[in-house]
Amino acid sequence: MSEPKAPKIEFPCDYVIKVIGNAAPDFTDFVVEVVECHAPGITEADISVTESSKGRFSSVQLKIVATGEDQLKALFEDLKASGRVHMVL
User: Are 65 and 14 spatial neighbours (Cβ–Cβ below 8 Å)?
Assistant: First the structure.
């Protein structure tokens, strides 16, 4: 008996990502700049920022229009390759 496959995402679609990294004055701008390269058209309403309780980490949540798996993979790789991002969810 085979395992049921996870449902595939139907593209294009609204897609929410959360990017966590060390808190810095320019962290949100940095994240938005990288995401804009892969998913242009982000507005202020699409961005939410939360600081950790001790202020060491920052979490930036963004809503983008995802066009395909290749776009998401490239976006996640660019964010992680920066060295400023701890986690992308």
Answer: yes
